[in-house]
Amino acid sequence: MRIFVVDDNPHVLALMQRSLQPHGEVEAYHDGGEALDRATASPPDLIVTDYRMKGLDGKSLLFRIKGQAQTKDVPVLLVATRADIEESLQDVAGQVEDFITKPFYARDLVQKAKRTLDKVYIARKQAESAASGGAFRGRLSEMNIMDLFQSMEMGAKTCLMTISDGVDTGQIYFGEGQVYHCVMGDVKGDEVVNRIAKWPDGTFEISFSAPRSEEKTTTTGTQGLLMEALRLLDEANK
Q: Looking at the whole model, is its pTM more than 0.85?
């Protein structure tokens, strides 16, 4: 995955580049115009840009990126102060993937960037699966349950996710990004997610062409299921 980071402050730029390097090939630019030229020639998978910069600022860069056919689908994370987000950037809220509020911690930057990259990756694999008529497969050590569920929710995906630890196998049905039916042997509903969340490793397979289940066995949405599973996992680890 290719990531562009853009900031005219060299210290912040270095922090962003260093923080995101484990998650992709990072290119750093201190000038919005230079980043735009490079993105036009070779679109990245994600752009993280500061708002207030000399020359072409982050808002203008966003407009240019979204205004070109070759880059209009590139997600953009915009870094800005809370005051700027609330007063100057509300008109672009629908065009940015997310805002990163300054001052920010590196972990917050990484969390939002990785969530966006996972969404891009899943969408790409969905397109490949549709073209080949197959399914998207991977390991939980590469993309864990939380990442998978959040990617399905963010992308509003409808699919069947099959997860196995080599002994047990669970089937999770998503409709428009929300989990609505889970089954693992004789167990159904929320408890399936609670059990799968404990698996340190395993395999997953996502089919975007599987028939939709008519059953509804969960009591809450994707985020609610994740939060409860993580709460139970924290309690078990104490």
A: no
Residues in CB range of 140: below 8 A, 6 or more apart:
163, 199, 200, 201, 202, 203, 204
Q: Which residues contact 115 (CB under 8 A, 6 or more apart)?
A: 147, 150, 151, 154
Q: Which of 82, 83, 65, 86 is nearest to 74 (CA)?
A: 65
How far is it between the farthest Cα atoms of the chain? 62
Q: CA 98, 52, 63: angle at the middle one, nearest 5?
A: 60
3-class SS of residue 24: coil
For the chain, the distance separating the N- and C-terminal CA atoms, rounded to the nearest angstrom, is 36
Backbone φ, ψ for residue 160 (5° rounding): -115, 125
Strand pairing category for 136-139 and 203-207: antiparallel
Q: What is the side-by-side strand order in the sheet with 2-6? A: 25-29, 2-6, 46-50, 76-81, 98-102
Q: Which two tokens stand for residue 117?
A: 């990259």
Fold entry, domain 2-119: Rossmann fold (3.40.50)
The vertex-119 CA angle with 139 and 80, nearest 5°, equals: 130
Cα–Cα distance, 185 to 177 (Å, whole number): 23
pLDDT in tens, 116-165: 998 898 888 888 877 767 788 889 988 888 889 988 998 899 999 999 99
Q: How many C-beta neighbours within 10 Å does residue 39 have?
A: 24
Q: Where are the domains of the chain?
A: 2-119, 135-237
Q: What are phi and psi of 70, to 5 degrees?
A: -80, -15
